[in-house]
């Protein structure tokens, strides 16, 4: 690929990042409200850092860091070289948002200069492509983390004013239907020439039993029935560990639901609004998703079942690109049998996040050139997380469309709720 | 089956339980040294409780509890009816060991009387059979929990004096070899008329890629090399979560290893002995098993790979029945290609503990009669634990032989070390 | 003093210790139910250890320890030589109770032999006297810790069966009266030839303002009024720290009160009995004592006020010597104005535990000979605890009479409840 | 007093507050780096809130809150009406710093209007005076909390650039001398017509034994000797609780000291500078102050000793008013015997924070009018903290001069280190 084209993509991605933070105050960009979240400013600096650390440092002649400390402050690796979110990132009031923007601008200029000087080898193309996808991921995390931060404020700040989220005619959720899929040996995993993470490879066979998937996501209304049926008070729906989680956290509803003055409301990036019963339930843990499914006499799909079905459908859905940061419908893509497989809400699967057969951790995923840069750069996406996490599929309303492939695997610990996670039901074909 | 035969099995099991606690003091039987362990005395009362609560209470005419409080004190269900180990069981100094033995004796007598009075329906047979397997499980847990308790004592108490555990000619471990197994659709899971837990069903197909299994378990000597190669100090071998586990627990060797006066020793149920480098390493977490495999350039087997291979072999190995409560050899069953698949040490697999396709939680596993008794009685073995746990296979040197089938699934959280857990390496056929 | 007389006292003390554990099972003596408590068996071994470590080790010719490990297992000093209760003492199932009794017997014999062989120097006399008082203290702690242990058991075990603790005519509590005491310079602290701890010295002057003390201890009935007046729900009665303590512990009544089937009961060493409203309230924290006083429009006394008044009275009260291990009256010593200043319940004072003016930590308290033995032996009683603890005075129903002097200072952290602690009200003379 | 004069004082105080935050970024003002600290922006809004809640709400005709939510967001009382720092204040990114300034400006205008309309009754004067002292206190806390926040940043931000803090001739510390003070009945506590907090009253008698105070504060150099003498590794200098504190926190030097590249440095509000051995040691806990004193064969003074001596001296010292936010000398006020009793560093006393004899919590301290407003307004300064805290005296280099009186009592828990706390040694006259 021509490096000029790649740089256009780089610039478009960076512009979008800047657009997303436009409505925010300096203060909004600095604070961290969860140990596992990061401040918006850190996401911004970190996205630029990727290119300084993995591109400029290796390809720029006479490389000089913009500021020496930024190479560690904006790194996602701790002192032991293990990737992890740092609960102290929110304490970095300096560099200011202004100074962090200047850092980004500097990196942009140097990336442009670089594109005039070097001939893109395959490794350079791979790293820049990875950096772009890395930034797309952080665009999503920015909004995810910001939503949690704003939700902590009694003033209920609005990220972007929007039209009313209450039910309109078009958003009345259709009755849930079940669609059947056949048994047999199927294949999942990425194959092709485009970008993918190493955890999507290799493409491999699995044996599937006949299964059914629900035609749409579980709605707030259905979830409310579960609550009103004392779902949170009945241990028979829950894993023992999930039951202990309820007892210690006192969770009794999705993360951003609030019961005020006798009515349910939901905090969104468009403000605090009445709970719309027809929209998909989001911000629930794996424990809650599983318990709901158990209550409904169903189960969560496996990731193989999900991907097998998703591979048959066109990727269409509520993504971040339309600048609406909350699910809008349960009926996306009316022409397909299974609505909203993509976008709207990340769908918990029952699959533990584990390596595919033949997966080779810490290595690139195909016949591409290998190098130390690559190994470090992709370290963030490989095997270190492959214990005690569960796979989510399909992207959400704050996911950039470009991030999503049928084979894309997202993963979080079972108690995670601040992600835009929802429920797709499955069951055995009987 | 004739209920008389079943009662013989009941009596034999109870005798064995009593034999196992013979060497212990009242004090040894009362104390709990870990929240997830139970005192020996509780295991004893709980084994008897099973028959009082699930057999006598339903089949005895004019049932009267031996002592009302025992129905809750010896139950494994907490007030919310969720099974869980109770960290306060060790505070129950009453009933005394003597009184608990009397409880068992009383239950034995009533079980004998019952066998003269009732005709065994299928449900009664199933429940008694389940109770016997339940007691076998608790025989194993008794020894597991006792070992931890005794290990906390500066006097290094000996449960059973034994001959020296140091290397003898016969126990020199053979060189590790790799044996290959073919790809294709295989079947795993229990099928047959005998006893099995519901989590082993239904028998089902899986697609396997060609794989290799190590000819024997990893030895203490090999694990020591990992330690001496700074395996615990190098994050690249560890899951992020495992690395955090090291940082918070400061683990740097298997649970019962000690470095004293320049030499490695190992605490065993036969006393504190010099570490035998030729014996299998035991008492390691899933994190440690995975890190060792990564360091060796290998991986852990999946449970499907393990069972596929194990199904081909005769069940033979170091089990508790021979009254030797530590692994003795790495070369069990010289005639087989894969040594010590059964007994010696529970083998961590890389498989997250999850339901088999078509698994129906809270139900018996076949065409057997269903009832509420059964549903409650087997509640302990079903789906409540199917999150954030990993499967172990094959049994250990303290497992009663009768507990083990090729399809038997044991499961524990990744940080668990007080079980007799070891490492079987696997790798992809290249 | 003749060493023979001292040995008689030694033997009498040891006999009493043995008498106190007579009703107990091996199991009762082994288990530890609180990190800050110790098992009865440990108290027993520790009392003997004192004489082995501080007397025999220094005065016996050709000293050989009874068992080398006991010198550390029964020591109250941890590896850093700092005194502290060890939350793992309850894990020592060995030595057995029987073996621990043999240890005591051995020490007794060696103490007798020693008394025949050595001429008592002043230091030897001091150490033996200290050891006897040390054992008296542990007699009290034994019962204190045992009560907590037994209280954890659903069987409500009875340490010693006794007559009914319900109100009898003689135990109706008298109306609370206030007695006034003058202002001026007074003196507190120990002075004399008898035994005292170093924290009681030197005797010194303090300036007191006129004050009043309540004629009797606060009763269960009065405390119940505080509860029924929502005392635990009203922050204005509580220190901020005490309020946080309520929020985190959910305490809403004294430690051993229980509300069962609409009635209040109290767990005692004589069994679970109906709450007697006329008896003194016990087992409350400093937070609760202070909040009750605030609610009553009064305050707790300072230790100087308490001692100033107590010095004027004969020491008489409900002590452990009468083998009744619960307060029996509020009107002890009818002839005195202030009832039950001694015995019945330790009385929280508002005084932080701090050194008296001129106090010299780590030194004996008078003109007695000084040595390293002494400094280590008394280390348990001196300055290491003089931060964040509060002084209690007067002894309780489980305190041996010989422990108590007007100047005796007991001290515990503000949240402590398992001691037999109660409330004496004070107020300013207006 | 004329309300116009009072308003001048109000305006001067507010101007100073604004001056102090001038060098800061929006981000610096928003973040909270300790649960017990507050963001600068919160301090600002809280200072204004005091006047809105306690003055305008009661005296303004047709009172309308500036913004309803501010009455709770900027309150120091939690939902249970108990004063406490809120660890979530740092999550309030809104109102912005700009909006918070506007809030202050609005309050200033309304206070001015009010002063033209009402005739100041005594209560109004008292509340405004209290509000001014309240704001002075928060000026100090702002700098205290800010220092901790900036210290967390790898960029070592400088609050105010200053001249070098290294030793100059004039700052070489004088040899420590001891000055003696007589025994007898003395009086401490506030008496007079000026402002004081209720905890300083009533003035009362105490009996003092002869004592000595050190001529100057302990220096960094002396404290370094303690460290180099393994003071942090020797339990004999420490309270048991202090020793446990070391073990759990791994503290081995004052809070803002750093050992980098073989040299000691100190983080200050004027940047990271080489440790000046001649300046007073600051930012140490009560545990450390006590251990140092023990190591030196001395002790901490009681608050009565401190006040008795301080009352004799003119109040002069390093205060915040000179815009230098770090101690500059050990020899302040050359003409006095005891240097730097005031300013430089808050001096830990050995006195537990407790009520003075005759203290009446929740009441004003003299014959002033009493009312509900007053009781709530001064709730922050009275008895709720009188458990498990220790008294500090004399003010520090960041304390406004107007806050300090001889009788002024500051108080913090023993483990507190982020305050500007130092050591004045005392000992008994021998």
Automatic annotation (TrEMBL), chains A, B, C, D:
Keywords: Iron, Oxidoreductase. Residues 10-128 form the DinB-like domain. Residues 182-328, 341-427 form the Sulfatase-modifying factor enzyme-like domain. Pathway: Amino-acid biosynthesis; ergothioneine biosynthesis. GO terms for biological process: ergothioneine biosynthetic process. Gene3D superfamilies: dinb family like domain, paralog of FGE (formylglycine-generating enzyme). InterPro entries: CTDL_fold, DinB-like, DinB/YfiT-like, EgtB, Sulfatase_Mod_Factor_Kinase, SUMF_dom, SUMF_sf. This is Ergothioneine biosynthesis protein EgtB. It comes from Nitrosomonas ureae. The lineage of its organism: Bacteria, Pseudomonadati, Pseudomonadota, Betaproteobacteria, Nitrosomonadales.
């Amino acid at each position: 690929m021509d490096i000029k084209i790649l740089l256009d993509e780089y610039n478009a991605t960076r512009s979008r990042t800047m657009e997303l933070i436009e409505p925010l105050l300096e203060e909004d960009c600095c604070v961290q409200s969860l140990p596992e979240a990061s401040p918006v400013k850190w996401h911004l600096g970190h996205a630029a850092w990727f290119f300084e650390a993995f591109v400029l440092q290796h390809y720029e002649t006479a490389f000089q860091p913009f500021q020496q400390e930024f190479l560690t402050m904006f790194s996602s690796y701790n002192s032991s070289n293990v990737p992890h979110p740092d609960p102290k990132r929110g304490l970095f009031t300096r560099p200011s948002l202004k100074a962090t923007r200047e850092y980004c601008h500097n990196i942009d200029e140097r990336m442009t200069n670089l594109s005039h000087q070097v001939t893109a080898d395959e490794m350079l193309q791979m790293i820049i492509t990875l950096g772009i996808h890395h930034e797309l991921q952080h665009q999503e995390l920015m909004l995810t983390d910001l939503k949690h931060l704003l939700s902590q404020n009694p003033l209920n700040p609005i990220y972007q004013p929007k039209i009313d989220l209450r039910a309109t005619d078009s958003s009345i959720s259709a009755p849930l239907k079940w669609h059947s899929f056949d048994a047999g040996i199927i294949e999942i995993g990425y194959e092709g020439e485009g970008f993918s993470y190493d955890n999507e490879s290799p493409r491999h066979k699995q044996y599937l039993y006949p299964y059914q998937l629900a035609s749409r996501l579980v709605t707030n209304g259905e979830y409310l029935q579960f609550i009103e049926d004392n779902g949170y008070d009945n241990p028979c729906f829950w894993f023992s560990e999930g039951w202990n989680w309820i007892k210690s956290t006192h969770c009794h509803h999705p993360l951003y639901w609030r019961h005020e003055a006798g009515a349910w409301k939901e905090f969104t990036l468009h403000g605090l609004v009445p709970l719309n019963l027809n929209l998909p339930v989001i911000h629930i843990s794996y424990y809650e998703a599983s318990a709901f499914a158990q209550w409904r006499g169903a189960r969560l799909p496996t990731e193989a079942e999900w991907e097998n079905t998703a591979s048959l459908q066109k990727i269409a859905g509520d993504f971040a690109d339309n600048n609406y940061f909350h699910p809008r419908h349960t009926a996306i893509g009316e022409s397909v049998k299974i609505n909203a497989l993509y976008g709207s809400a990340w769908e918990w699967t029952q699959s533990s996040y584990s390596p595919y057969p033949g997966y080779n951790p810490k290595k690139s995923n195909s016949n591409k050139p290998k190098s130390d840069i690559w190994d470090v750069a992709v370290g963030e996406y490989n095997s270190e997380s492959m214990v005690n996490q569960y796979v989510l599929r399909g992207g959400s309303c704050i996911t950039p469309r470009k991030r999503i492939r049928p084979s894309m695997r997202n993963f979080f610990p079972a108690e995670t709720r601040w992600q835009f996670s929802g429920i797709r039901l499955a069951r055995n074909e009987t």
